[in-house]
Amino acid sequence: MKLTFQGAAGCVTGSMHHLQVEGKQYLLDCGMYQGRRKESEARNRNFPFYPSSIDTMVLSHAHIDHSGRIPLLVKQGFRGPIHTTPATLDLCEAMLRDTGHIAESDAEYVNRKHPEEEPAQPLYTMEDAAEAMRHFRPVAYRTPTPIGPGLVMESYDAGHILGSSAVVLTHNNLRLAFSGDVGRPGLPVIRDPEPLPPVDYLIMECTYGGRTHPPVSDALLTLEDVVNRTIKRGGHLVVPAFAVGRTQQLVLLLHQLMTEHRLPSVPIYVDSPLALNVTKVFRDHSECFDQETNAWLQDGKDPFGFNRLTYIRDVNESKRLNNVKTPYVVISASGMCEAGRVLHHLRHNVGDSKNTILITGFQAENTLGRKLKDGWKSVRIFGFPIQVEAEVQSLDELSAHADSGELLTWMKPMVPTLKKVFLVHGEHPQAVALAASIKEQYGLEAVLAEPGMALDLT
Known about the structure:
Helix content is 32%, strand content 22%.
C-alpha cells in the first residue's frame, strides 16, 4: 500500500490523495483548489497523474473542495466507479452541475466585460458534470464494501455535512483511515461525528488544528444580534454561505428566531438555485438528521421553510434585490465568495456602511471571503476595485470543522493501535499546532503532509 498526497497538503482546499494497492490505483477525493484566481486555474486544470490510470475513487463528501474536479477527471479519461454515501451522491448531482453552470456563466460574463483579454474557458460544463454522475455508486454507512483486489472500504458519519463520511480502508491486516472533514458535536441539522474502529494509519484534516471554537450554543445569540443591528441601521445583511449544510443550518436558526419573535418581520431570501436543489436533497435524507431536526418533522413542521422566507431561483428576481432600499437578509453561495450570485450581492452592498457582510465558514487563503474577514479596505469583484464600507462580522460558532480539542477527542479511540498520523487540509500553523498537541497528549508522531509526499505503508 503506497500513499501519495496530491491535494490539500500544506493547504486547506483541493483534497486529493492517491493510493496504490496491488497494482491498482485509487483516489481519495478529487477536490477543487480555491485561492488566487490564476494559481487556482493552473492547479485545477492539471492533474499530477494520468486520470485514465485511476481505477477507483472514494469520495468523503460533496463540498466542492473535495468533489469539484470529478467532472474534469472523467473528461480527461477516468472510467472507474466513485464510491460514496447515498446523500453525497444526491448532493453531487446538484452541486457539480451547478459548478459547471457557474463556470460557463462566469466565463461568459468575464469575456463580455473584458473583451480585450484572451477569452476565458470554463473548467468544465454542465454536460461534463452530468457525464461524471454516471460513475457514482452509493454505499451506505457501516457497510463493508470490496472496491478492488483485497481492498475493502467502510464509511462512518463524519458529522461535517449531510452524507459526509470518514472512511476506513482495509487491505490484509493493514487498516488506513481517512477522516474527510470532521464535524463538531452539536451542530444543527446533522448528527454528531461517529468514532472509528482501530486502525494503523490515519489521514486527518487539521483545518482548525490550533484553535478552539466558540460554543455551538452561542450561534443563535450571535445571529440574533447581527440581524437586529443591521436592520436597525436600515441596511441589508448579506450572508455568503455554502449551499450545502451552512445554508440549511442558517435557515433553521432564523426559523427558530422568527418563531420565538426575536427578530422583526423582515424578508429573508435564499438566493441560490443550488441551495434550493440541495434543500430538497436534505428533505429526502432525513435519516441523516439529528434528533432536534427530526422533532420538527414529527411535529409536522418544515425546518427549512417559513412564511418570511423566500427561495429565489430566477436570475431576474435575484437582480431585483439590488434595487430594494428597505432592510432584508439574503443568504447566497458561494461560501468563500469566489463564484455565484453572492458576488453580485457583494458588489452592490459592500460599499455601504449601513450593510453587514456575515462570514459563516472557513475562508481559504487569497479568497475574497478571506480578504473581507481579514479587514481589507478595498477588494476586487469581477475585476473592479470596490471600497469596503460595510460592517464585516463572523459567525464562527457554526464552523463545520472540528477544532483542536474536538479533533483530539475524535481520534482518541484509534490511538492504541495507531502507528502514525498524517495531517492534511490545514494551513501550516494549524498543522504544526495540532501535531504538537497529538505528540503531547498521545505520544504519537504526526506527519505534516506536503504535495507529492509518497509513503510505503507496508
